[in-house]
Amino acid sequence: MDRVTAQDVARRAGVAASTVSRALNQxxxxxxxxxxxxxxxxxxxxxxxxxxxxxxxxxxxxxxxDVTNPFYFDIIRSTQEQLRTAGYMQxxxxxxxxxxxxxxxxxxxxxxxxxxxxxxTRLDSDALRDAATRLPLAVINRRHEHIPSVLIDIRVGLIQxxxxxxxxxxxxxxxxxxxxxxxxxxWRWKEFEEQVTGQGLEPVLVGPYPPNxxxxxxxxxxxxxxxxxxxxxxNDLLAIGIxxxxxxxxxxxxxxxxxxxxxxxxxxxxxxxxxxxxAGDVQQAGRIAATRLLGVLxxxxxxxxxxxxxxxxxxxxxxxxPAAR
Length: 325
Hints:
By secondary structure, the chain is of the alpha/beta class. It has eleven helices and twelve strands. It has three domains: about 5-45, 434 Repressor (Amino-terminal Domain) (Orthogonal Bundle), CATH 1.10.260; about 55-150 and about 280-310, Response regulator (Rossmann fold, 3-Layer(aba) Sandwich), CATH 3.40.50; about 155-280, 3-Layer(aba) Sandwich (Rossmann fold), CATH 3.40.50.2300.
């Protein structure tokens, strides 16, 4: 028996699939007459009824952009543990930092898995909404009003980082940008720019670069001609690549340039010098995302789809110091 989707309900009720999502998860955002028509269509088609055991596949996919990035290790572990406890097996897929690959994989997963968790998705909002009408989804490090989402909220950690650099005398601070397709990257730059200018300092945008060690090496060369005395990077891999490249060029960190990363991945404390970085509870983000997806799969979700926020803080290590004079 084919699984009834939100699109089927939308066609029966004569509305958009996104309207079906709001009617079922955010009833306060839709008029009562339309909602009743959607609920009637859902009942007629059997949408929302718990799947019979024989219809469940017991599989949930986890999609990550780069499985070699240590940031995803804790997400892989925490989602897997949460899903296993609920009787599901996790299928891990590396999408290679490609939104196109991600979309193709999601299409291939229809009818194969019960749902999917997307960590740092490269899909835009419309593509995500479309995918969610065909397969239950949850997303990590992304906001979306129609899909269960978890965001590691860098804002507190970012404020602490900018205040830390300002206290050290830095006035021109660069943001080393990651992949342009990343919603998270664009959001981090926006928050960075607001915080830096809000404290009377000068922001500089460098990049975009691939969010890996090679990208960091290229970013290091660009940083040296910006006049910035400090930088904050999209992620720790970029920061570590910068540290390695600057060391080879004979540029001292933090004497000549202070470097702040983001994510506190395994290894960031063992760099030379150890990396100052913005840290959040990545395992908690994975557990929340898995729990919220399970709520959708088990039809036990009763609250709206507001994004769950995981707070962050600054870890000060040896890669930051007084501005060069």
